[in-house]
UniProtKB/TrEMBL annotation:
Keywords: DNA-binding. This is RrF2 family transcriptional regulator. It comes from Chelativorans intermedius. The lineage of its organism: Bacteria, Pseudomonadati, Pseudomonadota, Alphaproteobacteria, Hyphomicrobiales. SUPFAM superfamilies: Winged helix' DNA-binding domain (SSF46785). The keyword DNA-binding applies. Coiled coil: none annotated. InterPro entries: TR_Rrf2-type_CS, Tscrpt_reg_Rrf2, WH-like_DNA-bd_sf, WH_DNA-bd_sf. NCBIfam families: rrf2_super. The keyword DNA-binding applies.
Length: 160
């Protein structure tokens, strides 16, 4: 199973917002931090807003922020809502596909079981689980200053 860029970007955007502790961030800032397309991220933000996961605020001090606590945002629900198509094999398509084996094929059940297991793993995590290493992520996304002991380490490694 391959996740779409839309889902990948949605999860990365949510991670960044969770690190900001409710402070709004612009889509442009998210795009710059991750080196991603602003236009694509605008579509992601719109979908996340429609899902009720983020709120948007217009104006000078506006931006996007989480609509609820990171612990209340289930990763499985984000993946399900962000993915367009879970038709891993032809017979999963909405039109049923045209596979000759469909009436007697047992592969469909195996693939369904694999897809359910894949999604069940995501269901077991919240956004809060993804940011348990908040300090490390904050350094990588430059959302918090490095601790005094870490500044030298990052400078020596060429990252700071």
């Amino acid at each position: 199973m391959r996740m779409t860029l839309h889902t990948d970007y949605a999860l990365r955007m949510l991670i960044m917002l969770a690190l900001k502790d409710g402070k709004p961030v612009t889509v442009q800032q998210v795009a710059e931090q991750y080196g991603l397309s602003r236009n694509h991220l605008l579509k992601v933000a719109l979908k996340l807003r429609r899902m009720g996961v983020i709120v948007t605020t217009r104006g000078r001090s506006g931006g996007i922020a989480l609509a609820r606590d990171a612990a209340a945002i289930n990763i499985g629900s984000i993946v399900r809502a962000s993915e367009d198509d879970f038709a891993l094999v032809e017979c999963f398509r909405q039109d049923g596909g045209a596979c000759l084996l469909s009436p007697a094929c047992r592969l469909r059940g195996v693939v369904r079981q694999a897809l359910d297991a894949y999604l069940a793993v995501f269901d077991g995590y919240s956004l809060a689980d993804l940011i348990q290493n908040k300090a490390e992520l904050g350094l990588l996304l430059q959302t918090e200053p490095p601790a005094p002991g870490n500044a030298l380490q990052h400078a020596e490694s060429g990252r700071g």
